[in-house]
Amino acid sequence: MTGVGAVPASATARRHDEAGGWTEVLGFVGPGSQRIAACAVVPDGACRGAVVVCPSLFNEFLKNARREVELARALGGAGFAVVRLHYRGTGHADGEPTDTAYPAMVADAHLAGSWLAELAGLAPTAYLGTRFGALVAASVAGPGAALALVEPVVSGAAFFSEGLTARLFAAGIHRRSGAGGEPRSVAELTAELERTGAVDVLGYTLGLELHRSAAEVTLVAEVGRARPRPLLVVQLDAARPLRAGLAEAVATLTRAGLDPEVDRLGAKEQWWLAEEREGAPGEAENRAQGLDADDPLLTRLVRWMAAAHDPGDQGGAPAPRPEGEPR
Amino acid sequence: MSGAGPSPAVATTLDEERVLVPCGDELLSGVLTRAADPGPVGILFLAGRWSVTSIGRSRLFVHLARRLAGRGFASLRLDYLGLGESTGRERRWRLEAPFREEPDAAVAWLAGRGVERVLVVGTCGGARLALDAAARLPAVVGAVLLAPPVREYAKGERTSSLPVAEFLRRGLRPAVLAGLADRRARRRYAHHLRGLARRLRRRARARLAGPPGGRTSAASADPASQAPGPGPQAPGPGPQAPGPGPQAPGPGPQGSRSSGPGAGGQTTGEPFEWVSRRFLGPLERLAERGVPVLVFFGEDDAYYRELCRGRAGGFDDLLARGAGVVELVTVPGRFHALAQADIGPVTLAAVEDWLTRHPLA
Fold it and tell me: Which of residues 165-204 of A touch B (CB under 8 A)?
């Protein structure tokens, strides 16, 4: 493919935020036509840390995207270099959903971290993952790196089961034509996945390769292997105790000496079914993920990252910059 | 070249560029996909309300952009203000007043890149942006409206904006009554009832404030017809014979618009219409100008059912008078939520088929 009119071949875009004191770089990263899409935020002054943000998949990827953009910008304002990515087969990256596999997602997160290191001159010091992205973040994090897990799934199998259950629920809501031939259980959908190589999860393709490669992955095993320090686990639901599966995982990690900090913040998130019904209560709020400055999750994560990199800092203020250096 | 052919190459990120499109004081993040053998027309994708509009639900725009590049169409997909990686603040969606900043900025930016003729492709609320842009901007030479809302209502109030009689009729259906046993369904019903109450209060206040206005004409209800700016484009190539696929015009399953007691309550305060003048007006202008438009629905889409209820109120006339310039195409099942993994191939097939009849050369 060549061009349209006189389009230059540059593949990246840059924007400097004067008020925030950082530059945002959007690009495609990687070899040949197997590139990820990535967006880095690089502070103007010295970096106090470098953070890789690992998103979730399917509906959750889009649903949480703006929140992750806002988080990256806020962290940039606090002196951190940050990179977000679209795994191959997702978002703007190359590839088809059926190509997606867990080891490739982990490799993509490594690649994003390497790109950030090139841009910011600092190798990743912290990882943050939401939902399924928490597994990836834990897989990529090395010993001693800070690790923040937001609404982590406890295993790949649990995540897929939730998604397939949501599909069954949505099919019931919409009474889709041909519903008589629709699979009626997670087991039937899993059998369809094995038979056909792919299954639809509310508009997204779950491929057999991803299912097979991630079904056995567990949060406890990945975090246990990484041995991050410090470790934060956030549940988005302040009103209820920690969910059973997550509480069990946290207890196991605590027994393993990882000493996780656990926070319950904000309101419960409808990860799978938002946008599925028009006018459902709370849907508008779920749809609008743009966060205000006082969003409790954003504030908490920025403060936690600051404290993780400088235990004396609880406020998330940026590191001192050299005299006369522009912000 | 623009048009169908055997298995064109699929673009990759090697053919793409991350871009920032100026929009007032803000920047819209987007992706420009270059074409293999660039034709004279580029595509602008306009999503409905969703957090990363440059990708689209089910990755629809990524799928279309990379495949239509092989057909000679460069394209731009972008995040609206305050969404995705764009700057600025998210705004409230208003179907009666579609955003103009983003389409205008994108069309101007494409022109600066040598793409002076644009096909707009929009989904849901984005289809209304596309319709509005097509009716206003001379550079737009075609529009694909994927599951467009055919009337106006406030966000989350599609059901509660129905005429009271229709609202009650639906509320008394056995399935709804059975839903009263379910806590989540009860919450949803309560939400609809609150919306209805708000609407009736607004109507009562409006009546107290002054005499009701008369029925709005297509021209006066069509914001595009009142917008300052360039006049209508010179008519393009004459109407083309409809090919296989589009539906023949004909009366809808049920009657026309309702304007009796209990009607009204769309966000505009105008009498209730299943298919609004604000939707029909720009379509009529495009038909007159010979700008081809594809209107595409899933047969189970709520918007399509509303179109069927109101198509005798003007839409069928439009299809007949448009002589193929405005086409209605449907596919079985549900399309609107873009919640099926095969939505990309289904949409691509419809657009490619339409392009064989309207090559936009």
Answer: 170, 174, 176-178, 198, 200-204
Q: How many CA atoms lie within 13 A of B87 on its CB side?
A: 19
CATH number at residue A37: 3.40.50.1820
- pLDDT range class, residue A320, cuts 50, 70, 90: very low
B182 shares contact with chain A (CB less than 8 Å): no
* Beta-sheet pairing, A231-236 with A261-265: parallel
User: Per CATH, is B13-155+217-357 categorized as 3.40.718.10?
Assistant: no
Number of domains in chain A: 1
* CB atoms near residue A256 (< 10 Å): 13
| 3-class secondary-structure state, position B62 | helix
Q: Provide the CA A169 distance to its chain's centre, in angstroms.
A: 25
Buried b (16+ CB within 10 A) or exposed e, A147-175: bbbbbbbbbbbebbbbbbebbeebbeebe
Residue A24 lies in a domain: yes
pLDDT bin (cut points 50, 70, 90) of residue B188 is confident
DSSP B209-248: HSPPP-PPPHHHH-HHHH--SS-PPPP-SPP----SSSPP
B18 vs A91: CB contact, 8 Å cut-off? Answer: no
Residue A176: predicted pLDDT:
44
- Does the residue A151 lie in any domain? yes
Instruction: Answer whether residue A97 is part of any domain.
Output: yes
ipTM over 0.90: no
**Minimal Cβ distance to B159: which of A92, A200, A279:** A279
Per the CB < 8 A criterion, the answer to whether B315 and B307 are in contact is: yes
Residue contact A174–B334, C-beta within 8 A: yes
User: Residue A174 corresponds to which amino acid?
Assistant: H
Is A99 among the domain residues?
A: yes
Note whether A35 contacts B38, CB cutoff 8 Å: no
